[in-house]
Amino acid sequence: MGNKFTPGPWYEAKNGNGCQSLVIGEGTGENIAVSYKKENACLIASAPDLLAACEAALIFLNEEEYYQKSFEMTFVLEKLREASAKAKGE
Fold it and tell me: Model pTM?
């Protein structure tokens, strides 16, 4: 099943009044979000990249056996899975 969200990349752009930032889908021009803080807009705009990084890390870490699955690694894997599922609305 494909993603239901607007595909990335997304970027942050200033609104004409300078008080708001918009997050725009680069390929679609769709307005993803409006934020009153630039820092929040930048974080929102990075969401597709962060999801891709989580999914790449999960693939790598689940396939590699060169490390011991310590408590810490189990914790990291669980956090990556939770973040990925949350981003996809699962």
Answer: 0.76
